[in-house]
Amino acid sequence: MFLFYYYYSNIMIVLSVVLITLTCVAIRYYIRNYCCLTYVIRNENILPGPKKYMAKYLYGNPDELLNILCILGKYFTSPFQLLKRPFVVIYEPNQVKTVLKSRHCLDKNIIFYKFAEEIFGTKLLTAPESIWNQNRKRIAPGFSLNMLQRFFNTFVEESLMLTNKLEKVGVNGNEIIFFEHIATCALDIACSTIMGIKMESNKKDQYFKTVMRLKEILRYRLYSVWNESWFDKIIFNFTTLGREQQKTSKLMHSLINELIQQQLHELNKTEMETNTNKTFFNILMEASHKKNFTQEMIRDNVITMITLTSDKITITINFVIFMLASFPEIQEKVYKELKTIYGTETLISAPVKYDDLQHMHYMDQVIKETIRLFPTTPIIGRRLTEDVKIGNFILPKNTSIIIILILMNRQEQYWPNPLKFDPDRFLPERIKDCLSDYHIPFSDGPRNCIGTKYAMISIKVILATLIRTFVLKVDKSIQIRNIKLKTDITLSTIEPLKIRIKKRDLQ
Q: What residues form the membrane-spanning segments (predicted)?
C-alpha cells in the first residue's frame, strides 16, 4: 500500500508539472499569436493580409515560398499582415528605408533568423542589437580602405587561378555550372583575407558541401509546418533531418576549428599585437584577449564572416555571368570598356589594378542591375524595439517586419519594365529622375553589410578577369520571369544556371 501511494504521488507530481508546462505554453502561444497582432492605425483599421486558409500555400513547400510572397505583394499593398503570426510584410521603398534606417529596427530577434543561430551562432548575423554593436566596432578595422587595398593582390591571384581552372573544364565547349567554381574561388578569397590562410583542397570541398546542405535544411525549417510549433527544436532534434543537422554542423565546426588552430600555430600574442598587416582574425584574437571571448564565440564569428562573404561574392557573380551570357550585346559593351583600359594586353602583362576599378563604370551598372533583379538577400527581417509608424499604420513594439527586397526591386511603379535587364537604369542622369537611387545591394542603414565594399571590389576583379579571357554563351536564353528562385537566407536558383565558355581573341 505504501508503494502504491509513493508511485501515485510521484505520478501526480509529474502530471502536475506537465499540466503547468502546457498551460504556460498555451498562454505564450496566445500572447504571441493573438495579443501581438494589434496592428492598427488611429482610426482602428486593421492591416490587410491573406486569410488563414492560405497557410497551406506558404507552409510545406520551401522552394515556392519566395514566389508566393511576391504574388501576395501583387494583391496586398505594403504593409500587410502575414497570416496569424506577428509578421508584417513591407516592400514599398520609403517604408523599407524607414525600417532599415530606424534605430528602433536594428534587432533581428525574430523566428526568421532563429534557426540560423543553430548553424552560425548568435554573432554578426543574428545577434541582439547590443552584442551586434560591440562586435561591429571590434571588426570594422578589418574592412577599412587600407585593408581592402592590401587584399587586392589576393583578389587578383585567385581570379587568375579561377580562370585557369575554367579554361581546363570548359576547353571542349562543355556546359559549366559556374556556381560551384566561383564558390570555391570565393571561399579561398574569404579564408585568405579573413584568416590569412587557405583551407586545404579536400577540406575546402567538404566545407562547401557542408554549408550547402545546412542551408537546405535551414530552408526546410524556415518554411515548413515545423516553424508553427512551440516544440520545434525538441521534436526536430529527434528527427532524421535534425540528427543530420547536428552531425553536419559538427563537421563544419571542426573544419573551422582546425583552420583556427592552424593559424594560431603560426601566430602568438606578441606577433598579433605588433603586426601592422592585420587580418580580421588578428583583430578578432586581440579582442578575445581583452574581452575573454570563448573558443565558440571566435569560431562562430569566423564561420559567419567566411560563409556570408563568400556567399555574396558567389551569388552575385553567378547571376552577372548568366546575364552577360544571355545578353551578348551587353557583354560586348562590358568587354569594350575593359579594352579601353587594358587594350590587347594579357592578364599576365596587365593584371587588374585597384585604380582600374574607378574606370569600370558600365560594369558597375551591370552589377547593380543584376543585384536589383537578384538581390543576394531577397528577404530581410527586423523586430521593432519601439512603436514605429509605417505608412498609415503604427506598428507596436515587438512586431516582426519582413522586407521583401526582391519584390521592391521588381515593382512597375518604381522600376519601369522591371523584368527587363537594363544596366542603363543606373546612368547618373537616369538615377536622378527615378527611385533607382534607393538601391541597396547588401542591406542598408546602421546594420548594413559591413563587407559591402569588400564584396564589390572582389566581384569587379573576378568579372574583369573572366570577361577579358572568355566569351560567355548560353544554349538557350531564359526570360528573367522564368528563372525559378528560392531562398534560405540568401538567394539561389531551383535549377542550376549553365553556360559555355570560349577563349576570347584579344586581337
A: 7-31
Judged by DSSP in three states, 176 sits in strand
Point out the least confidently predicted range of 45-59, 386-400, 406-420: 45-59
Minimum mean pLDDT among 102-111, 250-259, 304-313, 316-325: which range? 102-111
Instruction: Kindly list the distances between the CA atom of residue 6 and the CA atoms of 20, 108, 418, in Å, as whole numbers in the listed order.
Output: 21, 49, 73
Exposure string for 252-287, b = 16+ CB within 10 A, e = fewer = bbebbbebbeebeeebeeeebeeeeebbbbbbbbbb
Domains of the chain: 43-503 (1.10.630.10)
pLDDT, position 251: 93
Q: Is 449 annotated among the ligand-binding residues? A: yes
> Which grid cell sits at 472?
560567355
The torsion of the CA quartet 31, 35, 39, 41, rounded to 10 degrees, works out to -150
DSSP assignment letter at 110 = S
- Contact by Cβ (8 Å): 32, 24: no
Q: What is the CA radius of gyration of the chain?
A: 25
Is the confidence at residue 42, as pLDDT, over 60? no
Interatomic CA distance for residues 46 and 393, integer angstroms: 9
Write out the three cell numbers for 53: 486558409
Q: What is the pLDDT of residue 50?
A: 78
| Count of CA atoms in the C-beta half-sphere (13 A) of 367 | 26
Provide the 8-state DSSP code for 446: T
Q: How would you class 452 by CB atoms within 10 Å of its CB: exposed for 0-12, middle for 13-18, buried for 19 or more?
A: middle
**Grid-cell match 506577428, residue found:** 86
β-pair type (485-487, 498-503): unpaired
Strand partners, 88: 81, 401
Residue found by looking up cell 520571369 in the block: 481
Write the single-letter amino acid at 250.
K
Residue 117 has pLDDT above 60, yes or no: yes
